[in-house]
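Encode chain A's predicted structure.
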Amino acid sequence: MRMGTDSASPYMQTQGTLSAEAMSMQKVRWAERIVVDPEIHHGEPCIRGTRIPVAVVLGGLAEGLTPEAVLHKYPALTAEAIQACLAYAAEMNQQFS
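Encoded structure for chain A:
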């Protein structure tokens, strides 16, 4: 199945699903979407404009949820926010490796 062309593709461009563009391997500027503020969720990294911790998003993905399922579970999120969580985790891993 080719991404973005099959109506059953999880990458089709409809509201609540991820587009192929959103899932591309472009450099994600996670700092635009993730905030660490002692006044928000005890300083845990959260999605900007929400109280949703990055760890909750990553945990859902690690448990096997698809990005679409995470978006459904947390309607305040965007595909770009999920990408930012992954980019944040990757950068934090590189810093501590």
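The two ends are 36 Å apart (CA to CA).
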